[in-house]
Amino acid sequence: MNVHSQIFEADRPASNELDKFLTRRERKQLRKKGGRNPAPRMDIKEGYKPLVAMTPTQADYIDSLTNASQVFAIGPAGTGKTYIPARIAARMLKQKQIEKIYIARPTVSAKRHQQGFLPGKLEQKLAPWVVPIFDAIKDEVNPKTLEDWQKNGQIEIVSFEHLRGRTLRDCFVILDEAQLCTYADLKLFLTRKGESSTYVITGDLDQTEDEVIPDSGLGIVVDMIERFDLSPDLIEFDESEVVRSADAKEWVTAFKRASQG
Q1: Which of 7, 121, 172, 228 has the largest CB neighbor count within 10 A?
Q2: In the chain, pLDDT over 90 holds for what percent of residues?
Q3: Using one digit for the tens of pLDDT, what is the confidence trace for 233-261?
Q4: Distance of alpha carbon 96 from alpha carbon 67, whole angstroms
């Protein structure tokens, strides 16, 4: 059984071991036909929040994250597209099913991917950009465990400047806010993937911030997945699935309507 399916109780049907031989569309059809068990509730220790799918798309997302080695999650803020993989990554690291968590996020400013405007070492410079992921991890493990992981190098924040030439293996990798990546950024990132690794790419195609990143590559890569029937699972949320709060959902919907004129 592959490592991804071991995060929950090991009671999934044997057909899951065939996932690596299936196309993305075949895996999606298998889910719809009930060929996989629904992603179960995570058995969290008392005092920690359980991870339960709040929408049907979240259920599909959890299923993909525990079965596929590459997952793209596209949709608006507040749908859980960053929170859920952060929780699952922490769970896998806690259970020693992976060796490391890598976190990447484009730090778009006036000059792309340059951290010189913040003092300190690379980790300190990038840390403010990945606070949402750390917050999610703290819902899975206590702050001391997170601190130990960081000190031991079991969680690494990586910049695009330092990805070239690397191979990311035996790990869980989260690329957040991928709509702020150029096509070249995504080509570099996606071709770093090594064996026994899970890649999760999250982004919102309605938030490309054209004044800063006019050449976003996320839409192009998503189109490539569909056009060439590539293996990554593609999970798409819409504004009706915002679960952060009723107010957040109202604003996401309003901004969507405003952008459409």
Answers
A1: 172
A2: 62
A3: 999 999 999 999 999 999 999 998 888 87
A4: 17
**211 vs 155, which has greater pLDDT?**
155
Spatial neighbors of 191 by CB under 8 A, at least 6 apart, are none
Q: What is the reported pLDDT for 256?
A: 87
- Give 195-245 as a DSSP string: TTEEEEEEE-TT---TTT-TTB-HHHHHHHHHHTT-SSEEEE--GGG--S-
Cα separation, 165 vs 212, in Å, equals 27
Q: At what angle do helices 131-138 and 143-151 cross, to 10 degrees?
A: 130
| Cα dihedral sign, 17-92-60-176 | negative
Where are the chain's structural domains?
3-259
Report DSSP letters for 71-118, one per residue. Answer: EEEE--TTSSTTHHHHHHHHHHHHTTSSSEEEEE----SSSTT--TTS
Q: Output the average pLDDT for the chain.
A: 82
Instruction: Enter the tokens of residue 120.
Output: 């300190």
What 8-state DSSP symbol labels residue 48? S
Q: Which CATH class is domain 3-259?
A: alpha beta
Helix H or strand E segment including 172: strand 171-175
User: Looking at residue 50, what is its pLDDT?
Assistant: 86
Q: What pLDDT, on the 0 to 100 scale, is given for residue 23?
A: 57
Q: Is 23 exposed, middle or buried (0-12, 13-18, 19+ CB in 10 A)?
A: exposed
Identify the pLDDT of residue 107.
74
Question: What is the Cα–Cα distance from 214 to 15, expressed in whole angstroms?
Answer: 43
